[in-house]
Amino acid sequence: MNAFVRITENLLARLHGPLTFRLILQPLTALIIGIQDGLHDANADMPSFFWALLTDPTRRPELLRDAWKAIARVFVLAVIIDTVYQVIEFSWFYAGEALIVASVLAVVPYTLIRGPVNRLVSGVRRLSQKA
Q1: Which distant-in-sequence residues (6+ apart) come within 8 Å of 46 by Cβ?
Q2: What DSSP character marks residue 92?
């Protein structure tokens, strides 16, 4: 079987297999952490996280280090739970799949929410100062 097909089938199988509650709980945890960090960024008058990550190479290592500190536990927990899932479902462990799942469940939600929360709070703050 083609590796890409196997990975795709295995990833899609997670939607209906055991431990599916983690598909809600882990992204929700990452979102909460992202919201907290976005609020912190707004209070520190920092630029949007993802935008700064893309456009400011001097701050990129610092931003990545701070983000990793914030989501490391969620990411590691996602890898551990996916490992348990794989052992139950496949009687095998695929490290690449575990990293893909952990990234989707922890890194993506965190990255997508942190910047917009910062911009929203900063924008509301500017509007209230003008009023």
Answers
A1: 52, 118
A2: S
From CA 70, how far away is CA 34, in angstroms rounded? 8
114 has a pLDDT exceeding 90: yes
Per the document, the length of the chain is: 131
What is the distance between the alpha carbons of residues 102 and 81, in angstroms, rounded to a whole number? 9
Q: pTM here? A: 0.83
| Distance (Å, whole) CA 4 – CA 2 | 6
Element (H, E) at 78: helix 60-90
Alpha carbon 69 to chain centroid, angstroms = 12
Q: Using CA atoms, how far apart are residues 69 and 91, in angstroms rounded to an integer? A: 32
Q: How far apart are CA 33 and CA 37, in angstroms?
A: 6
Is a pLDDT exceeding 80 seen at residue 1? no
- Calpha distance 55→107 (Å, rounded): 19
Q: Is 30 exposed, middle or buried (0-12, 13-18, 19+ CB in 10 A)?
A: buried
